[in-house]
Input
Amino acid sequence: MTQPADAGRQRMPLPLLRGQKALVTGAGSGIGRATAVELGRAGADVVVNYSSAREAAEEVVREIESFGVRAYAHRADVSREDQVVGMFARMAEEFGTVDVLVANAGLQQDAAVTEMTLDRWNRVLDVNLTGQFLCAREAVKEFDRRGVVPEVSRAAGKIICMSSVHQIIPWAGHANYAASKGGVLMMMRTLAQECAPRGIRVNAVAPGAIRTPINTEAWNTPQAEAGLLGLIPYGRVGDPADVAAAVTLLASDLMDYVVGTTIYVDGGMTLYPGFAAGG
Ligand code: NAD
Output
């Protein structure tokens, strides 16, 4: 049964992140955009990181500002150490600190293994895995410096890594992407183990199939969408807002005891629906 995309969704009634400072990478489109907006709606001031499309990022800033919180766009390639360090330095100047990092920026450069150039392999690992590491490292330095401020949050800081169901589901023709997300899983769990004693919560959100520019060809024709729905027990393709809601909750103190976990936002894709009728 297909359900309307926004059926039953209610706006969060509580300013779950009031007074917190959030940085969302790759926030000019798709999941990052929806997440940046939702964090702003929840009361956070938000840095909207983007890599090339300035106007789109400025639109996100205006939408966030409409909630009465602060926001600005910052251009940085998350795979470049100097640019990541500069992004956090500016955030310290403008907002004073960082409470929430959503390491979301990512890309696909698909190819069969025999056609996979080293450049494609490296680019996807550089952005999807090394980019998350660089941002997480800078965030943890600031969380350690500042420590817990009880009136802001029970935690010294929160990191949410944007992973994918392909952190556990193999994906032929996408070895670089699946390897990058498998790496995100163990990086996230290791950082969670390492940093939890200092009051830092590191977790991941793993989307299934979400309607965004990264995967347009997977859902933009009726045939493609029908094929995709065969992989989704819940019967609909996901929306960026589905992922944004999970990230916002994970960042909030409602989830204060959740550490080192992945929340799958996938309509059941990781339930291996191919096995539903036997196997
Ligand atoms: P998207 O293409 O709309 O978003 C990715 C964003 O990352 C873009 O805004 C892009 O400009 C930015 N980006 C790319 N390289 C960058 C760099 N070097 N530095 C800074 N920003 C950079 O697609 P999306 O679906 O919203 O993807 C967001 C995240 O969600 C990615 O990590 C992706 O792997 C993950 N994800 C998406 C899906 C899905 O079905 N859409 C499923 C699982 C995981």
Observations:
- The chain has one domain: 15-266.
- Residues 15-266 form a domain with the Rossmann fold fold (CATH 3.40.50.720).
